[in-house]
Amino acid sequence: MTRIFDPDCRNCPRLAAFLDAVKEKNPDYHCRPVPPFGDPAANFLIVGLAPGMHGANRTGRPFTGDHAGILLYETLHDFGFSNQAESVAEDDGLRLLNSRITNAVKCLPPDNKPVGAEINTCNAYLANELSTLPENSVILALGGIAHRAVIRGLSLRQADYPFGHAAEHEITPGLILLDSYHCSRYNTNTRRLTDEMFRSVFARAKELLVQVGG
Ligand code: URA
After folding, report:
1. From 63, 111, 186, 198, mutation site for ligand 1 pocket: most ligand atoms within 8 A of C-beta
2. DSSP codes of every residue in 92-127
3. Within the chain, where are the H helices?
4. Which of 75, 109, 167, 189 is least enclosed by beta carbons within 10 angstroms?
5. Domains observed in the chain
């Protein structure tokens, strides 16, 4: 069976132990693997890094309730990919339209830094999810780790597809991987990624979706 997510996964011992410890301190937090969110048949897949401590790890939905999610969900709404601009809780009525958000690593990592073995172990889920994408799709990778996880999940050579902000990689004529710097608080505060830069990536994603017929 092609599994894109396992809510009971404890394959990474360090992450499983960390989630148990965070749950002890925060009994009302999700503290489990965070599932992909959005349209299961979408032609547009956004790949983030991993749940944030007080965002997705608290609410159980990618980028929901944390700083990185503010710009992401506002931009998704501005470009017609959702019914509302805010994402605060699982029951807030938000629906994504022809889009889905997933993470390269489904569990909260200490210091927001999954190690290589964790990224690789979790890649089995991402690879399965990528294999469910319609043939005419656009993938948006947020940051270098997400980008490399996508390349690995597609069984491609990293050297052939270097990460770069706004870089476009034609995987097949119908499948394009587009890159952006991650919309993290650090990147937006330092203006490595501005709202305008992020919006122009989404404008390009829309054009590419038209190009591939998605
Ligand atoms: N929250 C997520 O779900 N993913 C990220 O990459 C960052 C915050």
Report:
1. 63
2. S---BSSEEEEESS-SPPGGG---HHHHHHHHHHHH
3. 13-25, 56-59, 67-78, 116-131, 144-153, 185-189, 195-212
4. 189
5. 30-212 (3.40.470.10)
Q: How confident is the model over 43-66, as pLDDT tens digits?
A: 999 999 999 999 999 999 999 999
Tokens standing for residue 32: 């489990």
**Burial (CB count <10 Å: 0-12, 13-18, 19+), residue 61:** buried
Distance CA 79, CA 65 (A): 20
Q: Is the CB of 57 under 6 A from ligand 1?
A: no
| Ligand 1 atom nearest to CA at 49 | 6
Residue type, 60: G
**How many CB atoms lie under 10 A from the CB of residue 32?**
19
**pLDDT tier, 31 (very low <50, low <70, confident <90, very high otherwise):** very high
Strands 175-180 and 168-172: antiparallel
Q: Give the span between the Cα atoms of 180 and 205, in whole angstroms.
A: 11
Taking only the tens place, the pLDDT of each residue in 182-193 is 999 999 999 999
